[in-house]
Design brief:
alpha/beta; 8-stranded mixed sheet; 7-stranded mixed sheet; about 15% strand; globular; binds nicotinamide-adenine-dinucleotide
Length: about 375
Amino acid sequence: MKVAVLKETRTGERRVALVPQGVQELVKAGLAVSVETGAGTRAGVTDALYAEAGAEIAGSPAEALAGADLVLRVNPPTTEVSDEVGTIPKGAVLVSFLSPLTRPELIRSLVERGVTAISMEMVPRITRAQSMDALSSQATVAGYKSVLMAADHLPKFLPMFTTAAGTIRPGKALILGAGVAGLQAIATARRLGAVVEAFDVRPAVKEQVQSLGARFLETTEEMAAEGEGGYATELSEEQHEKELALIAGALPTADIVITTAQIPGRTAPVLITEEMVRSMRPGSVIVDLAAESGGNCELTRAEEVVTHEGVTIFGPTNLPAAIPVHASQMYSKNIVTLLREMLDDEGNVVLDFENDVIGPATVTHGGEIRNERVKASLEGARA
Ligand code: NAD
């Protein structure tokens, strides 16, 4: 079996799907790994390091893909700029982030090409699959980096300082949405010495927030919106108004605000309106990690930096790419663990759709869409 690892083509991407440690593990499992030249350069991995780990270095994407049974990527293949799906060998298995609920044209191309597409987003968030959960590993990176980004832009210290030149009070961080990225943002802001407040609509996270040394914003009324698989659901209109009032109370004293609130398959909820931004102190910074799904702040523009009445709002859509070494290392570990679920003792791919990870994560196979949620979203897009 041949595995192809390609250089990512997304603008600004610096990660790579497999690092040398992963190459070694796959070679040991009986696979041949072909890495496109330069694929790891931006993540600090040279061709020589890949070769040392046992990979063949391919001079071009076509050479890496020739005869490949498995194709590993970080970002979805493009269908618009160039037809990257058309270069995948027919019947091969593609493992990648695919944004399957929002990219109907990509799913159609994968079906037409007969590709077996395994979506990293669709790996179920069950305890057994934690080591394959790339949404979590990359959200960890994003949560950490978001705080550094905000701190770097802030015209103030975050920690408290007691110096001969006076005492500096610690800065305040407000974290909205305390899932994987939010909890990491809380931990990072605490390490930088900030006083941290946080809020989430899932009551279960209150204890986790508190155990990280942050204050959980309390409401007088129950505001729980937890659905299937531990994910959030939409709040009622009345609850949403109450949430906005709660956040509005915390914003005027916040120096940095990290927003991470998302609802799978939906537009992100607006948690900070334009009027609320105006209540913030000039110099404060918002980093909106929900920018790609519409943003938690009304003024967020994806991939842009907006300044409004002295408040800076960042809308990054690919923060994991800013820490490519460890983001790639973690992603590679996720992918190799996932591949182990579908390899037999000789290193052959054996797809078992009864497997509780491979089954739900496989979105297309044999010219058909296998995942019901993806099928439904595609039908919705056509209607
Ligand atoms: P996510 O990226 O979908 O959302 C981020 C956070 O935003 C969530 O905590 C969500 O509750 C919150 N949110 C949504 N609407 C909100 C609103 N209006 N106001 C405030 N907060 C709001 O979530 P995620 O970080 O990918 O993970 C969510 C949950 O999934 C986890 O906390 C956990 O329960 C579950 N999970 C399980 C595993 C596992 O067991 N393997 C792994 C990862 C995640």
